[in-house]
Amino acid sequence: MMESGLAKLAGKVIAFEGLDGAGKSTVLGVLSKRLRQAGCTVFLPRSGKDHSSRPARMIRELTRDRVNLELRPRAERELYCAREAQILDEQVRPAIARGETVLLDRSILTAVVLGAYGRGLPRDECEMAARMASGGLDPDVTVILDVHPRTSKIRKRLDRARNPKVRDPSRKGLSGSGLKERIREGYRELAAERGYLLFHTERVGPSTVAERVVEALATGAPPSTLEDPSDGVPVWQTAPEHGLTEALAELPENIALYMTRNLIAGRALRRSAATREPRLVAWALDVEDPLLPDLATQVPEHALSGWIRRPLDDDDLRVRLMASAPAAVARALRHLDDERSDRMREQLAEHAPGEVLESLAGREDDLARALRQRLWSAGNVAQAAIGIAGCHGEDAWRLRDELFERDPAMALRSLKGLHDDRSRQRLERYAPLAPKAVLQAMVNDGRDFAHGLRRELLSAGREVIESLGSLDDEPSLELREELAERWPSTVAGSVSALAPSARIEALLDRCKAHGAGDVHVLRQFAAREERDQRPAWKRGEDLEGTED
């Protein structure tokens, strides 16, 4: 019965939509295999991230490339429509004429959701642009794979931890977490309005979701009859009365490792998972984890990532790993300016020039200027920007201006720690175009101008709170209090390094109440409890892991 039901899909167009990390690639792979077994000839215009259409690939790169920071929402929408029009005319219509079943990884609906919900353009204009681009060819079936943006983020972070390829941030990623939240709501609203098939992917693996999609398409069964009521509840949502230990026991191992990154409370879990998930465990280590020496030899880029600011000692891992892991060692020298670390920089410069360049952040002494001049062209734009962050001199501004010409989104990183008129002008100019990058550059910036800009950028998302860093002035406290119910875990994390007071305790109580059952919140409270157990050089830093 299943095969005969699938055979009826011959010649149909089925589109899949949803946030990245929802499992579309896996579902498409399973469905295409099952359709072929049922006798259908299947065509996929896109496999993974690559379109088989060259013009479509070029349009995608144009919209993704962060250098195109000035690309505006209406132009972006038209480019998305142009990409889908190209795919429909070049590939989909001929495939339909051949009697093939077409499976689309995204469709013209993407342009509508991104434009109307993500960017705030008038929905009727977006619908009209989509109709013109489609030329009347709409998918026969649209499937929405629904996932919470924070779950999507967790999956992507875990993937990067396991597979640390160099991935340049996309232009869309510069908008902040709020964009994904709005896009998700758009998909959900349109699914309810138009009857799209919506499957939840929070607590079930993509293979299970794929089988449910196959059954729904073959039998016509509504998704709600194939799912468990809890499938739409994020995996990081637990019983309100649970503490962190109880919550972790319910989580899949990889999610539990994510939630205990940098926490002493995660040591037992990491010890048990070290042989199965060495890369993920190394990424999750706290700075004094007993596993660190062994894993540093296996996965130094992860194991040493938390050692920034750690003073060198006589038996330092960084000294022992200089020959085998020069890049990881050089990066871990950032914020150190003693004679020994400078000798190490000189030795590492040939083998890890970009990372040595990064390690010079905030320094404008003679040695730093000489190394910077020598290595400037050897590092990428991100490394160069990090390497002059906090530098105020004219030499640094000359280099900074060069970076803004090449890649303004990355150049914004170099403004962190600067509180002058020139930095203000850059932040104001790029705030509408790259709000996330601007907010990251404003961490610990307590100027009146910065506080005003944060309020203008509230739609960017949680990054507004993260930009407060360890500020404890009145505007910072007021903003945290206003947003505690909206982003309880982020607010709780933002006060982790602040001195205790009645006001802070009241704020934390609100975060705990409004974030009951959220493991992100439990994690932040565990971090606060562990603060005094962390080494002194680490206590002043914001806890990294789930909020970055």
CATH topology of one domain: Rossmann fold
Radius of gyration: 25 Å
Largest sheet: 5 strands, parallel
Number of helices: 33
**What is the CATH class of one domain?**
Alpha Beta
Provide mean pLDDT, rounded.
94
Helix content percent band: 55-70%
Number of E-state strands: 7
Summing up helix and strand content along with how strands pair, one would put the structural category as mainly alpha
Residue stretches low in confidence (pLDDT < 50, at least 5 long) are 542-548
β-strand percent reads under 5%
- CATH superfamily heading of one domain: P-loop containing nucleotide triphosphate hydrolases
Would you kindly provide a written description of the structure presented here, covering whatever features stand out?
By secondary structure, this protein is mainly alpha-helical. The chain has a domain at 2-232: P-loop containing nucleotide triphosphate hydrolases (Rossmann fold, 3-Layer(aba) Sandwich), CATH 3.40.50.300. The protein is 55% helix and 5% strand. It is built from 33 helices and 7 strands. It has helices at residues 2-7, 24-37, 54-64, 73-97, 109-118, 123-134, 149-162, 177-194, 206-219, 223-226, 244-250, 253-259, 267-273, 278-284, 292-298, 300-303, 317-320, 326-331, 339-348, 353-358, 366-375, 381-387, 394-406, 408-411, 421-430, 435-441, 448-456, 463-466, 474-483, 488-494, 502-514, 519-530, 536-539; strands at 13-17, 42-43, 46-47, 50-51, 101-105, 141-146, 197-200. A 5-stranded parallel beta sheet has the order 2-5-1-6-7, with helices on both faces. Helix 5 crosses helix 8 (177-194) and helix 14 (278-284) crosses helix 15. The two termini are 48 Å apart.
